[in-house]
Structure formats: structure tokens, C-alpha cells
Amino acid sequence: GQNIDQPTEMTATEGAIVQINCTYQTSGFNGLFWYQQHAGEAPTFLSYNVLDGLEEKGRFSSFLSRSKGYSYLLLKELQMKDSASYLCAVIDSNYQLIWGAGTKLIIKP
Amino acid sequence: SAVISQKPSRDICQRGTSLTIQCQVDSQVTMMFWYRQQPGQSLTLIATANQGSEATYESGFVIDKFPISRPNLTFSTLTVSNMSPEDSSIYLCSAHGTEWNEQFFGPGTRLTVL
Q1: Residue A5 distance to chain B (closest CA, Å)
Q2: How far is A42 from chain B (nearest CA, A)?
Q3: Sign of CA dihedral B32, B24, B51, B1
Q4: Which of A9, A45, A92, A93 to mutate: most B Cβ within 10 Å?
Q5: Which of A19, B48, B83, B109 is the most exposed place for a label (fewest CB within 10 A)?
Q6: pLDDT tens for residues B63-112?
Q7: For the segment B21-34, what is each residue's pLDDT rounded down to a tens digit?
């Protein structure tokens, strides 16, 4: 079966750095998305990785290792507005999007 | 990037009735999808809306319950038929362009069935 694992919940302090991990087992791989979703709102696109390595975009970076079936989202200089759920999703060989359950990130002052 | 709008944004409906949700994209997109998201859960794909042909449904979802239309490349509708309280959820329209790294979501429709 296809599976995506992320921690259910994480807590971090304002101004700090947090890394949210995602491991996947899917039938094929055509890319990995990270989305941010605030409560009651639709997901918003953060990043897309299809090649190994780190992609940096401002305070957010995303890393991918295809051989390990692993990705992480790194958030730096955390702000209170970063409190949200972070969803990992993988495109499989049939170009289906497989979604993780999401990681709820709680930022404390 | 594409901008997606949905109508209605929320509704409260009676058991046994039907609701049609509209999704409008401000540019032509290749693929349109309908998702459901239960409270505290991740997204579940209902179906892929195909332009000019029947939608492709995921396991556990059927056309009689969730009829979908896609008359052109910028518009789709999802109907939730014969509703029950178990259908209470957020319904999200999603689309992507020619490249898979462009994936956009509408604001969602929050449905409550009494």
C-alpha cells in the first residue's frame, strides 16, 4: 500500500527553528509537495521537490532524499503566524497525489 | 498562478437534500480535482473532473452520490446528493496547470448536514 508518515503535532518557540519530517512509501515518485493549512482555510502551496537536495525559499526550506523516501520542511525564525498544519503530499507513478495526515505546528511565545 | 473561487463558502443543509458546489478558475487548467476534508483529517480525493467526459472517481466514491460536471477548462461543479450528517465536511476544489508543480486550491466549502 501507499503510505505517508508525518508527526501528528509539534511545538516550537517563536524565533526558533523547527524541522517537520515526512517519510513515504509509494508506487513510484514524481514529486513531493509541502502545503501550509491554517485552521478553517484551504491549503496553500509552500514547495515542490522532485530532485534530491535542499530548496530554500525565504524562511522555509524543503529537503528531499528519494533513495531514503524522506523529506523535511525547515522553518526558521518562527513567527506566531506559522502556527498551522503542514501537509506532505507525494505524486506517485500514476500521477495521483497521496496525502499525509498533516503535522499540526504550535508556536509558543 | 491560478486563482480558484468556490460557491457557496458554507451551507447548512437538511438530511436528504442535495447541494451543488461551484468551482471557477481564472485561467485554463489541465486537471481539476474535488477533495473532502473531515475535521482534523487530511485531504481525501473524491474524483478528478475531466473536461468533456465523465469524472474519474476514487474508491469509496460513486457518481450517484457525487455527480460532477466540467463543461469547460475553467469551471466544474460537485453535487453532494441525498445528504446525511456523515457528509458534513469541507469540500475543496483543486487544479493544476501544465506542470505538476503548480497545484492550487479553492477556499473550500464548509458543509454541515443536520
Answers
A1: 12
A2: 5
A3: negative
A4: A45
A5: A19
A6: 999 999 999 989 999 999 999 999 999 999 999 876 666 778 899 999 99
A7: 999 999 888 789 99
Chain A neighbors of B111, CB-CB under 8 A: none
Cα(B24)–Cα(B3) distance, integer angstroms: 8
Q: Going by DSSP bridges, is the β-strand pair B10-13/B109-113 parallel, antiparallel, or unpaired?
A: parallel
Q: Which amino acid is at A15?
A: G
For position B8, what pLDDT does the model report? 96
Q: Which residues in chain A have their CB less than 8 angstroms from residue B92's CB?
A: 42-43
CB neighbour list of residue B26: distance below 8 Å, 6 or more residues apart: B2, B3, B4, B5, B74
For residue range A37-48, list pLDDT tens digits in order.
Answer: 998 888 888 999
**In this structure, are residues A107 and A14 in contact, taking their beta carbons and an 8 Å threshold?**
yes
Q: Write the pLDDT tens digit of every residue in A22-34.
A: 999 999 998 999 9
In the numeric block, the cell 457528509 is attached to B87
**A43 phi/psi in degrees, rounded to 5:** -65, 145
Q: Are B100 and A31 in contact (CB under 8 A)?
A: yes
